[in-house]
Each structure stands twice: as structure tokens, then as C-alpha cells.
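FW: tagging you since you asked about this chain on Friday. Here's the raw sequence from the shared folder, copied in full. Didn't touch anything.
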Amino acid sequence: GKIRFTVYPDLEHDSWTRTCDNPKLYEWMLEQRNDRFT
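HL: got it, structure written out here
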């Protein structure tokens, strides 16, 4: 798959809040496909 790696240099442990607030995360999730299975 295509990995997307984002670094938030101004954040420490709580990086998931900003990540989950980003609508592009959900667009990216919905783009993922696994064609090996039906």
C-alpha cells in the first residue's frame, strides 16, 4: 500500500488529535483497496 507519514514537530505525544481532525485522513482511508480478496 501507499504509506503516508506526517511529522508534527510542534506536537509531542498527542499527535492523533490533529491527525483525526484532518478530513484528508478519511479521504485517504476510503481510497485504500485490497484487490486480493472479494
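FW: The CA atoms of residues 18 and 31 lie 20 Å apart.
HL: agreed, and The chain has a mean pLDDT of 87.
FW: great, closing this out.
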